[in-house]
Amino acid sequence: MKPEAPRGMGAARNLLFLREEELRLAQDLLYFGYRDFTAGPDRILATMEMGRAHHRVLHFVGRAPGIKVGELLAILDITKQSLGRVLQPLIEQGYVKQAPGLKDKRQRLLTLTEQGSALEQRLFAAQREWVLRAYREAGPQAVEGFRQVMRGLMGPDARAQFEALEKSAAPGRTTPTFSPSSAPGPAPRPAGAGRA
């Protein structure tokens, strides 16, 4: 029979992940995981003289067909000028099409073309196996924990945008429903924080 741990020992052991070295390890995990998760699409895009900014636009336009330019700006948290540098070539090269809004003709609604959808699917396939492997190795409980941690890393604005996107991408959706308009204003950025 195992000797009983002193009272409170289990709680202390459960808090070890809050030590600074453990938090630095979490940073390392995020950096290395993101590096390898993005490596496949990076290689594909490099052959087309594109980069991660193009990938992000293709991803979110693909996830929410008919998304307004303003909504995409809110998700990406970039300036109109920065988005224009990425979006305009995607439109000119036939990956994204824009149409005027149904009610407000000044709005620009974005959707992927057939060519854009094929590229987005190719980029997704390059990451799909990484996620599948990681999820299978970790198991359902760890996957749920991962989702909770990732949600916890989001500020209130990002969380509201994510939840709106999650609803718009629900199975059976036939029309675009994404709208981050209910999201609160941008969360304050820590000093020295830049945009990736």
What are the defining features of this structure?
about 60% helix; mainly alpha; about 200 residues; disordered N terminus; 8 helices; about 5% strand; globular
Describe this structure in words.
The chain is mainly α and 196 residues long. It is built from eight helices and three strands. The protein has helices at 9-14, 20-46, 52-63, 69-76, 80-92, 114-138, 140-153, 156-168; strands at residues 67-68, 96-100, 108-112. Strands 1-3-2 form a three-stranded antiparallel sheet. Strand 2 and strand 3 (108-112) form a beta hairpin. The chain starts with 8 loop residues before the first helix and ends in a 28-residue tail after the last helix.
Mean pLDDT score:
83
Encode the helix/strand succession as letters.
HHHEHHEEHHH
H/I helix tally:
8
Cα radius of gyration in angstroms: 20 Å
